[in-house]
Amino acid sequence: MKNVVLQRGFAVRLRLAFLLFVAIAFAATIGFAAHAPHSSAQTTGYGAPQPVPDQTIQSIGSHGGSNTGLALGVGVGVAILGGGVFVGWRHHHAAEHPYD
């Protein structure tokens, strides 16, 4: 009985994935076939964009970032991914832990 339910759930997810794929492909096809102009912005006259010379942004202090901030960001990212992997692993191996 459980196998039938799992197969039905898989079929529903597969059908949804296929539907989303078809919708994205359809939207891309319509977008390419629309022949819309690349830019409808004003290019001449008053209010037109002006050419800006190259500018260099100078960082404050000796370097642009903090090694502590980088380490903290990487640590938070690893913790989030690790937590997701752990939750997925526990969900996939639920039969090994029937009392959780």
Task: Give descriptors for this structure.
100 residues, mainly alpha, 58% helix
Mind explaining what this structure looks like?
With 100 residues, the chain is mainly alpha-helical. Among the domains are: 1-33; 67-100. Helices cover 58% and strands 0% of the residues. The chain has two helices and no strands. The protein has helices spanning 2-33, 67-92. The longest helix is centred in the first third of the chain and has 32 residues, at 2-33. It is flat. The two termini are 22 Å apart. The mean pLDDT is 77.
Report the principal-axis shape. Answer: flat
Q: By helix and strand content, what is the structural category?
A: mainly alpha
Give the beta-strand count.
Answer: 0
The total of helices stands at: 2
Element pattern in H and E = HH
Low-confidence parts, pLDDT < 50 over ≥5 residues?
Answer: none
- Main beta sheet, described? none
Mean pLDDT: 77
Distance between the termini: 22 Å
Task: Indicate the radius of gyration in whole angstroms.
Answer: 26 Å
**Fraction of residues in helices?**
55-70%
The percentage of residues in β strands lies in under 5%
